[in-house]
Write the structure tokens for this entry.
Amino acid sequence: MSPAAVVRPSTGAARTPALPGVGAVGLRRIGYETRAHFRVVDHVFFSFLFPVMMFLLFAAIFGQQGELGAAPDGTGGISFASYYLTSMLAAGLLLSGTQTLAIDIAIEKHEGTLARLGNTPMSPISFFIGKLGQVFVTGTAQAAVLVLVAVLGFGVQLPTEPGRWLTFAWLFLLGTAVFGVLGIALSALPRSGKSATAVVLPPVLILQFISGVYLPFSQLPDWLQQLAALFPLKWLAEGMRGVFLPEHFAAAEPSGVWDCGLIALVLGGWLVLGLVVCLLTFRWQRRG
């Protein structure tokens, strides 16, 4: 056989394409999760639009009662719409994060969607990134709608100091992360998809009432204020009040000041706790 007839092995042998990394898969999941969220009418109504509708309701009901927190000479007050904007911005992240994710993941687990994902190379971290990204996207859109309705419909004055908007940015990001991981953690409680709503909605609703969302926090009994202080919604709502309300409204807070450092510490603690619970309890399918 002549040397020319010898078949030489190819130096460029075909290689198996490398799988995308954990972060890349997670980022792709954000788009999928967000599109799936807005395709379901229940999601759009009960999580995305619900805070907007509650804002419209409270602003219309209490708007005829004058200003809140005005001095005896009638100065220094704000409209009820201004107050409820802060409440609904905080509650919106609770609904978009904790309520939505807890119910959705429990249903996905019951229907076998998570079991199918578990049979793929997808990491739970990629799944978490997709869900948290969904909360960030929907929460941002929801906050934008709330602010537009408040400004255009009720003449709410927004802060002009850059420092306040910087505070809003880290509060929003931290709140998104906290309520997102708590939603993933809470999804382990329902025993089935059918029971998810019944398990998740009551604590979420109660938390809103005791955290100063629907009622001014200073008007709640002391024992309820102390109970609410154990949970993150109270602190996020206080932080939002610190961003959007005049400085003298801090006197109505339990500490008498906008304590951003303590707010960050409490929310950060809940974030760490939520992450630990997620990592310990998350399963692609329910055991037993």
The mean pLDDT is 87. The longest helix spans residues 80-111. The chain has one domain: 23-281.
